[in-house]
Amino acid sequence: MIIPRPRELTPRPGTLPVGPDLHLSAGPGAEQAAGLLAEYLGLPDAPTGPGPRLRLELVPDHPATAEQSALGPQGYLLEIRPDGATLSAPAEAGLLSGIQTLRQLLPPEALDPERPLGADGHWPCLTIRDSPRLPWRGFMLDVVRHFFPLSYLLELVDELALLKFNVLQLHLTDDQGWRFEVDGLPRLTEVGAWRTETQVGPPGSGLADNTPHGGYYTRAELQQLVAFAARRGITVVPEIEMPGHVRAALAAYPEYGNHPEHRLPVWTQRGISEDILSVDDKTLAFCRQILDTVVQVFPSRHVHIGGEECPTVQWEQSEAARERARELGLAHPAQLRGWFLGRMQEHLAGHGRRTVCWDETGHAAGEPPAGMVLGAWRDPVHGVLAVGRGHQVVMGPHRSTYLDYPQRDHPHEPHGQPGEIVGLDDVLRFDPLAADLQPGGLPVADPAQDELPGVLGVQGSLWTEYVATPAHARYLLYPRLCGIAEVAWRPGPHDRESLLERAATHRRRVAALLSAGGTHTPRMIGTIEA
């Protein structure tokens, strides 16, 4: 009942009892992973008396043989015997994945953090050699269109870790809101974090809820989230939109727009505002100031700067923008988009970070600068083209990985993005390495290979124009999030019925995780698709 299914699993006779007398030990470098497992299991610091033993240790990876595949930097080897167990891996990332396998091998109810691990708990005896197909296994949550509290983000991280995701991308800014504090720019949250109402009808209907909406995260909250996620092997990648999708920022600081005399409210509509950043030096400095705070709060190797869906009509109408384009030798002001993104890429490189943006293949604004990691969201072929141009790509085509689309054509299905149905079959049919693509940017010891072109990974996305509560979010996630985890971890073909059976068990795990008191309260998590 493991999700994603391990690459190599060999059952053995017997079981290993799991209870408070389990002796957990760690080799050099494995102490933090062992501490996390002890916390998950509710183990005492120093069990006394006889009992089974579980050891975590870091060991060198060995070349693959005809019988066994190499583990790689994120793989692990788990051996469970009646008298004890060993979890070993070449790096901590593998240990953390193995820990999630150990959690999934327990009865779902054992994941309830308030339920002591009793004598009825046990692990089946087996040997698992496992490693992921791709190094970036991500999920993007939009917290702009609807704000989600920190408590939900912490719960989401634990759910993602359980499925062996290792990236949470937070979409923190857009036309409809600004969700984090920036040093020296207080109006971004004082003004930009709040809108007067939210569109509730279809685009162009003019229907709104007449209810103010907003919120933002303090630096301390985001640092808490980053640390909580890192302990579970998840990197939080911030996404800060520019030069488009910036209406909330311009509501706070209109002087950085193309019409500084206009006082704009935070946008209340869906879709894309035509208000974008100007291209003068003071605006570039404004964006650099924002990114300086971003890199202080988020230690991630990658920083996402959006870059997509940037209407250029204001640049075309601006004499200053047209003059900037002429100075740069650009044929059209629309090409300022790539130039703008390049300036931010240079700034982030000065901080030792790699820039990510959404791919806009085939659009008049031109291609993003070389060296950027691209998110292929429109169509898989755009990912193929981007790899051919020398980019690393995170594959997330909307018809396979966008979870804000309805799961089924049913009268009781909640409203979602119009025009598509994305069911579990659509997820499982998706092959991120189709068209003979190869993995790129593998996390290897040689830094020179960090920017090799290829498919860096897979990412699911949940945009929240239609999603206002954690309950609704969870309904949309399951079972499709389980499918994305499977696709990112191992090659197909993927058995739908097997995945549904395992997802039904996983639903019970999530229910157990959410059954504790405090900020964890029971929530609807949807039904498993038949």
From TrEMBL:
Domain Beta-hexosaminidase bacterial type N-terminal: 2-130
Root EC class: hydrolase
Domain Glycoside hydrolase family 20 catalytic: 135-491
EC number(s) from the headed UniProt entry: 3.2.1.52
Keywords for this protein: Glycosidase, Hydrolase
InterPro entries: Beta_hexosaminidase_sua/sub, GH, Glyco_hydro_20_cat, Hex-like_dom2, HEX_bac_N
Pfam family, one: Glyco_hydro_20
Catalysed reactions listed for this entry: Hydrolysis of terminal non-reducing N-acetyl-D-hexosamine residues in N-acetyl-beta-D-hexosaminides
Keyword Hydrolase part of the UniProt annotation: yes
Gene3D superfamilies with a match to the protein in the record: Chitobiase/beta-hexosaminidase domain 2-like (3.30.379.10), Glycosidases (3.20.20.80)
Record-stated family: Belongs to the glycosyl hydrolase 20 family.
Protein name: beta-N-acetylhexosaminidase
Source species: Streptacidiphilus jeojiensis
